[in-house]
Amino acid sequence: MFGAEDYGVDIEIPTADVDRLVDVTPSAVEPADELSFARNVFVPLTTACRYTCTYCTYYDPPGAASLLSPDEISDICERGAAAGCTEALFTFGDDPDDRYTEVHDQLSEWGHDSIHSYLREACEIALECGLLPHSNPGDQTREQMELVADVNASMGVMLETTAEVQAHGGARAKDPGQRLATIATAGELGMPFTTGILVGIGETMRDRAESLLAIRELHERYGHVQEIIVQPVVENERWREDSPDFETIRRVTAMARVALPPEISIQSPPNLAPVEDLLDCGVDDFGGVSPVTDDHINPEYAWPALRELEDIAETAGVPLSERLPVHERYVSEAWLSPRIEAAIEADGPAGRRYRALLDRAD
Is the pTM of this model over 0.90? Predict the structure, then answer.
């Protein structure tokens, strides 16, 4: 289903489950009794991407795409650690070194045969600076994910939708089956994982339900999905279509809470959605919020200050807590690689900062 079988992943969603989920409204869920966020730095490794999605401002065309140097990565991570961050969020477009000659040549000059090889070096820099890597590099093969898994506390990729939509169109259209295969690969490798759906790129309400249920099925199989993001597409220099209306976002957020087991957090990005009006729909997490860097994927939408999130939580009458990029249960249940465990247990400022958040969670 959804073409995932082409990548060796079998997913079947009963029609009755879709029918039930489509009928869900916010009245079907209860507000969360606590809220969380991670303090991060955004590290856009490169702005190159093989895709040309019509809603995306992240990618630059060949000849204009940049590639951060090791010194630039180190500078960003050091500033983040100094500001009390615990997460280095690494992003880049899908398989950019195949399409972008300059990026490929630069990687070769630095001694790397692929962007994933360079990502591993970047993650090692982050760990040395006192941050836990969370990488979101798009579609990945098993070989690519294995190359970087042990130096990541968690990883992620947005499923976006299981539907084939025009916004993904063109010769290099995203393949929902490949996206689902990436999520499945993370489960096979025991990697705590973040995924989510985009709302408003041409998908229907049934498509949204099917996407959420596909995520649920993969989590039931592997237990690795730590949170999902319900993200509205927003107007920007490339996307002039309407954003989804408020009631649609409320309804889809509630659908996510009903579709997924309680251990999976429901995240609403506070710079893109009216989170204060979504708390009664099941939102319990604000995701990564940076005191240092911009949201490079949505540069026109600034992160709110931490004080704003505290005010939202206070108004709702629920506690707000800071967390690591990997959710606490995966730490306590020994999902992490020896490299990440050693970073958390290290006798230094970073290790103490990590453990303080885990002790607070307990």
Answer: yes
pLDDT tens digits, residue range 45-84?
887 777 776 666 656 676 667 789 999 999 999 999 999 9
Report which residue type is found at 22: V
Strand partners, 133: 88
> In 3D, which of 131, 84, 89 has the Cα closest to residue 294?
89
Cα-based torsion angle of the residue sequence 325, 329, 332, 333 in order, rounded to the nearest 10 degrees: -120
Alpha helices in 40-165 (DSSP H): 70-82, 101-109, 115-129, 142-148
| CA atoms within 13 Å, Cβ hemisphere of 340 | 26
**Tokens 């809220």, residue located:** 35
The pLDDT value recorded for residue 272 is: 72
Cβ atoms of residues 313 and 28 within 8 Å: no
**Greatest Cα-to-Cα distance within the chain, rounded to the nearest angstrom:** 57
First to last CA, the chain: 40
| Exposed / middle / buried, residue 101 (Cβ in 10 Å: 0-12, 13-18, 19+) | exposed
- Of the candidates 177, 189, 186, which has an alpha carbon nearest to the alpha carbon of residue 8? 177
φ, ψ of residue 78 to 5 degrees: the values are -65, -40
pLDDT(296) > 80: no
Residue with tokens 């360079």: 118
Q: What is the dihedral of CA 299, 302, 306, 311, to 10 degrees?
A: -140
Residues in the chain: 362
C-alpha dihedral, 278 to 56 to 118 to 107, nearest 10°: -170
List, in order, residues 6 or more apart from 165 with CB less than 8 Å away. 201, 202, 203
